[in-house]
Amino acid sequence: MKMMRSHGKAPQRGGLSRALREQKARLYIIRRCVVMLLCWHD
Question: Which pLDDT tens digit goes with each residue over 5-39?
Fold first, then answer.
């Protein structure tokens, strides 16, 4: 049981970090777009 538990936790952890990385990338892209739009406005 213990082995199964730890095994089930590992992929979840990896998926979490992966999702966080994707969210960070998305936020970065959105921020870049906003900066570009603001620069173009001026």
Answer: 445 455 556 789 999 999 999 999 999 999 999 99
Helix, strand, or coil here: 10? helix
Kindly state the tokens that stand for 15.
Answer: 């998926």
**Cβ neighbours for 13, distance < 8 A, ≥ 6 positions apart:** none
Alpha-carbon gap, residue 16 to 2, rounded angstroms: 21
CA distance 38 to 25: 20
Question: One-letter amino acid identity for 22?
Answer: E
